[in-house]
Design brief:
three-stranded antiparallel β-sheet; transport; mainly alpha; Clc chloride channel; 62% helix; single chain; 517 residues
Length: 517
């Protein structure tokens, strides 16, 4: 998925054929046991992105590529060969043992885990500071949005934030070196250090000022940039660089949300599509270390509060999952397609100087009546997680659902960079709670938070096409009982299958018919 940025956490802006790893000085007497073709192959030959970008390259960054991809059947990194008990890698004119590579990778992962964790904690504190200065509040489970802030201050905050960001991104995208997406960085494109830092800080800034977009892309981009620098210092082999960058990007997600499982599975399931022992072990090591270090900086607390969720769940929830999984799967597919459209039509050049401030103005006007639309979606989601089985509350959730979806897509379309993970959770929690109210009339259930939990996992799984990462992220952010993985996994599978069917048999066919006309 593309990562919103300059010119999508959020993605399909990968340029085909970037940075092949070719040996400029081939050995005239090569070792017959070494596969030189593998050494000289591009990094993509091992594990190409599952969601390979399609269409022309464009400015932007997303959480996941909005396209399907079947990974290469190869499971061995390019350039790696085995001969008896001696395993070596010979590329770029030198030979390096597997043991040496493992040692360097372990050292790099430990160093990056600590560094990314500290940076993730500082980015969170920066977000809190901007919220306090701009909106007079600091988000928390008890006060997830600027509900107590005067409406004029809310409108002024998003307008100023959007205007400043528009000018900064215009200068950055026009006159500075382009900041590639995380996907491009994984595939070998170098991330310029100061441009990446500015780009990351802008994303945190607009979320703190109230624009409707996720903040989870920023730490992943920072992690990828840091990985490239550390790899250069430690002389990590080119064969391992792609894995290290992806692992570090996932650790960035783990750091800001204290979600080591989601961070590791973001690397494994989305960026690399690789379940080799080295990838799995190092991904969990780096994400766990980053999450722990981040808590030392920003503290540890639950992100979303659940009301009255018990360890045991009733069997009727599995039946609810069948129905809600289909609905949330369709909604997730539509949100995925809408995000892709917004990214492909994102404002570029000087047009961002007026489109992004216009998006800020629209957000401010909507926030007069729907303040939970502001920010990364935490306020909207919390309404669902603490929902009440009342008809009036269902209307509020539906309004929040529509406002959050429209304003988020508008913000992306008008040139902002950011993620769609937490907005996806917000939409899923709202829809799950509304469906739960309907279900409660049949079963007499009173606890709406369990329905919001299932809806959040389902819609996020469908919109990201990554059910393992999605359900782990929702479970970690809510700190739900482990037994809830059963219904959560079930509804996630239903939603993903529904989203794939709906995309292929409805949206794609409609698009083909439209093209024929």
């Amino acid at each position: 998925m593309r990562e919103h940025g300059n010119g999508p956490d959020v993605n399909p802006d990968v340029i085909a054929g970037d940075n092949p790893d070719v040996n400029p000085n081939p050995d005239p007497n090569p070792d017959p046991n070494v596969d030189l073709d593998a050494c000289n192959a591009p990094a993509q030959t091992h594990d190409e992105p599952r969601n390979a970008p399609q269409g022309p390259a464009a400015a932007g960054h997303f959480d996941n590529d909005f396209a399907d991809f079947s990974p290469s059947p190869s499971s061995k990194p390019a350039g790696e060969s085995t001969q008896g008990s001696s395993r070596t890698v010979a590329c770029s004119g030198h030979e390096q043992s597997i043991g040496s590579r493992l040692g360097l990778m372990a050292a790099a992962v430990v160093l990056l885990g600590a560094l990314i964790g500290a940076c993730g904690g500082l980015l969170t504190l920066m977000l809190y500071g901007i919220e306090h200065l701009a909106l007079g509040f600091v988000e928390s489970p008890e006060l997830p949005g600027p509900f107590e802030t005067d409406w004029r201050r809310r409108a002024l905050s998003v307008l100023i934030g959007a205007t400043v960001a528009a000018v900064a991104w215009f200068v950055l995208r026009t006159y500075a070196r382009r900041v590639p997406s995380v996907r491009q960085a994984v595939d070998g494109e170098s991330m310029p250090w100061w441009q990446t830092v500015v780009h990351v800080l802008l994303q945190i800034g607009i979320v703190g000022m109230g624009l409707s977009v996720g903040r989870e892309v920023a730490p992943r981009e920072l992690g990828a940039m840091l990985a490239q620098r550390v790899a250069r210092v430690l002389h990590v082999h080119d064969v391992d660089l792609r894995r290290l960058v992806a692992i570090s990007a996932g650790a960035g997600l783990a750091a800001v949300y204290n979600a080591p499982l989601a961070g590791a599975f973001f690397t494994i399931e989305i960026l690399l599509v690789d379940v080799s022992a080295m990838t799995v072990v190092l991904s969990f090591l780096c994400s766990a270390l980053a999450a722990w270090v981040a808590t030392l900086v920003k503290g540890a607390h639950v992100f979303y509060l659940l009301d009255g969720v018990h360890a045991q769940f009733s069997p009727d929830l599995m039946a609810f999952a069948l129905v809600a999984g289909v609905v949330c799967g369709v909604c997730g597919a539509l949100f995925r397609r809408g995000s892709s459209w917004a990214e492909s039509h994102k404002s570029s050049g000087a047009s961002i100087l007026w489109t992004l401030p216009a998006a800020g103005l629209v957000t401010g006007v909507v926030a007069i009546w729907v303040p939970q639309v502001m920010g990364n979606g935490r306020a909207t989601a919390q309404l669902g997680f603490t929902g009440r089985p009342e008809l009036a509350f269902a209307g509020l959730l539906l309004i929040s659902f529509l406002a959050k979806a429209i304003v988020t897509l508008l913000t992306i379309r008008c040139g902002a960079s950011g993620g769609v993970l937490t907005p996806g959770i917000a939409l899923g929690a709202s829809m799950g709670c509304v469906l739960g109210m309907c279900w409660a009339h049949i079963t007499g259930a009173q606890d709406m938070s369990v329905f919001a939990l299932l809806g959040a996992a389902a819609l996020l799984s469908a919109s990201q096409n990554a059910p393992i990462m999605a359900m782990c992220l929702v479970m970690e952010l809510t700190q739900a009982p482990m037994t809830w993985f059963v219904p959560v996994a079930f509804i996630a599978m239903i939603a993903v299958m529904t989203a794939r069917w709906f995309t292929t048999h409805v949206m794609d066919r409609a698009h083909v018919q439209e093209m024929r006309v």
